[in-house]
Amino acid sequence: MCWDDANCLVAIAGAGAIPPLVQLLGPGSTAHVQEVAAVALGTLVQNPTNAVTIAAAGAIPPLVQLLGPGSTADVQRNAAAALVCLAQNADNQVTIAAAGAIPPPVQLLGPGFAADVQKAAAAALKFLGENADNAVTIAAAGAIPALVMLPGSGFAADVQKATAVVLGCLAQNANNKVTIAAAGAIPLLVQLAQPGSAAAKLTQDVATAVLRDLGKGNADNRAAVAALIRD
Predict the structure, then answer these.
(1) Which residues contact 184 (CB under 8 A, 6 or more apart)?
(2) Structure confidence at residue 153 as a pLDDT band (50, 70, 90)
(3) What is the model's pTM?
């Protein structure tokens, strides 16, 4: 299969593959078939034109359904990954949120889920949170405390970075800055930002940028960061 060939992705979609794949996401399919369909759509969606076609074919509601507790971890991870790609389109960010996609990935951040599922959920929330209204909804759904607790569940490097990236996206909202600090994120971010920490260099850079954003227009957050750095 030529999944890594951009022209091939266009050809597959042009041959009419998208609507049948969307149908296979439905409850009449086995978990394995749903997983394979989600993977295929998650690959095809990497072409911007295909992303529009996939959304228009009605893929978003069944993908959101597959994030729920009735799905296997593999199906949840691949459905979230497909939504991540779709959410890189601004119009799709609105459509995905309207389909009820924000609460399910917040639930997938919980300690009972594998790190790769948590990472995919965090990535979906990151792109959805680029929309200002979605950022408010994500915070209201309880994502911030869940994100702050994530790195403590084993400190997987990918999860650390995903946590910092999502918090940075949410920190563009003034009210969220207060909520993020109240949830205990500042000590975590300071720890991740330290040059001598176990976090990867990219994670350190992201955490530093988030701390900077949290301090913009918020004197209490700036003071909290400064106190921890002094210590």
Answers:
(1) 148
(2) very low
(3) 0.82
